[in-house]
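Weekly structure sync, notes
Attendees: PL (lead), two postdocs, one rotation student
Agenda item 3: pending single-chain targets
PL asked that the sequence for the first pending target be pasted directly into the notes so everyone works from the same version. It is reproduced below exactly as submitted, 270 residues in total.
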Amino acid sequence: MDPTDTAHVVIGTTWTDELADAATDAKLRFEVYEPGASVAIDGPIGRVMDLVERVPVTSVSVTESSEALRPIPDRRPDVTAPRPGRPYLLTGFGDLPELKLASPARETLLRSLAQTVQTIDGQPYPRLEIDGACGESKAGASCALLAVGYTAGSVGRDDEWSIDGTPQGGWIGRLDRARLWSVPRAMVRAAEWDARHDGPTLARIRAYSWCCEATWDPAAPGRITLVYGRLCTSAARPGRDIAETGECRDQLSVTVDLGAERVTLVDGPA
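Predicted structure, written out during the meeting:
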C-alpha cells in the first residue's frame, strides 16, 4: 500500500491508552477494542504506522479502507493494460501428488483444465491450488476439477476455474464455472482513479457506500469492472441482491478500459 492510502489498523498492545492519546493528537479516528489489549486506528497507513512504532505491540492487522469515496492518489497509478493468456497450455501444472483421481480421468481432465485456465496477465499464478473429486448420480459417473489461483499483487483475491467431465465424453472437461476476482491492486486503483475522474460516473458512485471488488473478463482484455455496494434505499424488488443477513443490497458495476483510461459501462440502480 502507498503511505497515503487509508487503512483500518488493529493493534495488539498493552499501551492502548498511550496509543489512543497519540491518535487523538494526530487527529485520527480510533476505537479501543479492549483496554490494555487492542485498539483500532483509521487513517493514512503511513501516519498510523508512525504511531504504532512508538509502542510495544504483539500484533498488527491492516485492512484497506472499503469506503466508496476512499482517498485516491493525486496521480493515476502507472499500469499497463493486461493481456490475458493461457500459461499452462504447453507446460501443464507439473506434479500434483495430492490430486487423487484415477487414470484416464486424471490426465484428460488436467489437459482440459490447462486449456481452460486463463490469467489476467498471461503469467502462471504465483499460488495455485487444484482439487478434484469423482462421484455417481442418476446421470452416471462424473469427475470435477477446481483450480483456485492468486495473481501477484491481488491482495488475497482469487480466480476460480471449475470443469467437469464424464466417461461418455471421454473425460474431456467442460467449463462449469469461472469466477474471476484476482486483479492486481495497482490495476484496481488505476480503474478506480479513472472512474472517479469521470464526472457522471463519480455522481453515481457518490450514492454508494462501499467498494471495490474487481472482476476481469478474458473476452474483454484490458477491462476491469469495479463493484460498489450500498444497502437498498427502498424495499427489495426483483433484481436486487439479498445478503445472507437478509439485508437488501444494491450493486453498481463500473467497467473501465485501462488502456484507453476511460469508463465504458456503468450499470446499477441510480
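Discussion points:
- The two ends are 31 Å apart (CA to CA).
- The mean pLDDT is 92.
Action: rotation student to compare against the earlier draft before next sync.
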